[in-house]
Specification:
By secondary structure, the protein is mainly α. About 80% of the residues lie in helices and about 0% in strands.
Length: about 450
């Protein structure tokens, strides 16, 4: 027997603009809260521990990105499939994929974290770090890695709870975590002087707390999806995961590009160069998270209307998303060009990081055009995922996050002898935009709905 829906489905019946922003604003607040953990850690580490420690943390990013990638793929793929089921009013199937995704991610988390801890030193060596940095990296890595299990579960719940019409619960949960992170960073690093270990504990604890807050979803009488351990057809998890492959590619590719960047910068500028690109990444991260929140909101809106075969609403939501991206892009470009020195200086303490600040400012000069294309690329990739075109979505993600960045980085690194090779990132976004546009034109909402099987 199917579970009866108990509330209005705004994605299918609500007014376009109010509904879009009803989901977008909590999503933005949620992702800003998630991002704030890294930003706040960076500020406290840079000011209280030093530039070298900031670089050491950056060197561990490829490992966490690799582990996050698979969890993201399962979560996004499962939630998109659940969205289609909700659009079809098949609430039993939506509950089933929710349960199977949550269980699968939890099991994966235990196995991945165990392997990550067991092969710690081999991973550090593979990341290009020298043995002198191993103690600093271990200090952070050994603490943060076990907490990833809670973060993986939070990722699953983030996507599914928002899909089921509880975006405010997600926003509250992640905001609580962000506030706790600030307090714990100040206490552990600023007051008690625990260094990188303190930063890791602050981040881990603050990102585990949202999981406890989100548990309120399971006792809500208004929820549509129910959780049950007893499930059949576990193959559906992998089938659904394929539709989330673009997110897997984004996460994995991001880690690979960070690895390439770190190697190039270590060769030419040492750990100061790694610290400089780390700070620039912090500046870009906030913008990217807002773009991702728009893409994520589109997945919620479009996947359900795709299941309901409502192309007109799909178009309306896409137009609203495009306008939002254009406005945000303009705002971020103005901010990063006008206040970059002030923003970068937040991450260092006095004269300790003058060389790093100067280098980071030079990096900004060449990377800011990334905001011209990144948002649209994420939107199109999210749209393609929502209409169950994982291959096309994965191609956009692969081009913008791995193929083009790697190619342009290698070419520019060989052609120039200084730091101008960082211009590879906006060049890659532009090249990916051309491909994304072709895919979008070929799979407009009208055609997508007609092709539903």
């Amino acid at each position: 027997m199917e579970i009866e829906a108990k509330k209005e489905n705004l994605a299918l019946d609500g007014k376009i603009v109010p509904t879009f922003f009803k989901y977008l604003i909590p999503s933005m607040l949620s992702l800003i809260a998630m991002t704030s953990a890294s930003l706040v850690d960076g500020i406290f580490i840079g000011n209280y521990v030093g530039v070298t420690a900031l670089g050491a943390v950056n060197l561990t990013i490829p490992v966490t990105a690799l582990l996050f990638g698979f969890a993201m793929m399962l979560s996004v793929g499962g939630s998109v499939r659940a969205g289609k089921y909700l659009g079809e009013k098949n609430y039993t199937a939506a509950s089933s994929i929710f349960s199977k995704t949550l269980i699968s991610v939890a099991v994966y988390g235990v196995l991945a974290i165990s392997l990550g801890l067991f092969f710690e030193l081999e991973l550090f060596a593979g990341l290009g770090a020298n043995e002198e940095l191993f103690p600093l990296m271990s200090e952070y890595y050994r603490v943060i890695l076990p907490f990833l299990l809670a973060q993986f579960i939070v990722i699953v719940m983030y996507f599914f709870i928002r899909l089921d019409g509880f975006p405010n619960l997600v926003a509250v949960a992640l905001t609580v975590g962000a506030l706790v992170n600030i307090l714990l960073d100040y206490l552990f690093i600023g007051v008690l002087g625990f260094g990188l270990r303190g930063a890791a504990f602050a981040t881990g604890i603050s990102q585990a707390l949202p999981m406890l807050v989100m548990m309120a979803y399971f006792i809500s009488p208004d929820r549509t999806m129910k959780f049950s351990v007893r499930q059949k057809n576990w193959r559906e998890v992998l089938q659904a995961a394929y539709n989330g492959i673009s997110e897997f590619i984004n996460e994995i590719s991001g880690g690979i590009i960070v690895l390439i960047f770190n190697w190039m910068l270590l060769q030419r500028f040492g750990v100061v160069g790694v610290a400089a690109i780390t700070v620039v990444n912090y500046l870009l991260m906030l913008g990217f998270m807002m773009f991702f929140s728009i893409s994520d909101t589109i997945q919620v809106m479009v996947s359900q209307n795709f299941g309901a075969r409502n192309a007109l609403r799909m178009v309306a939501f896409l137009k609203t998303a495009c306008i939002s991206i254009f406005v945000l892009s303009a705002i971020f470009i103005i901010i990063i060009l006008s206040f970059s020195e002030t923003l970068i200086s937040i991450f260092v303490n006095g004269d300790d990081g003058e060389e790093m600040v100067a280098m980071a400012l030079d990096f900004v000069t060449y990377v800011w055009p990334v905001f011209l294309f990144a948002g649209t690329n994420m939107l199109i990739s999210g749209y393609l995922t929502a209409i169950h075109l994982p291959f096309q979505s994965g191609m956009v993600a692969l081009c913008r996050s791995l193929v083009f960045p790697t190619a342009f980085l290698i070419i520019l690194y060989l052609l120039v002898s200084d730091y101008r090779f960082v211009a590879a990132i906006p060049l890659a976004e532009f090249a990916a935009f051309m491909i994304a546009l072709v895919f979008f034109i070929r799979h407009l909402p009208d055609k997508a709905v007609r092709d539903i099987r």
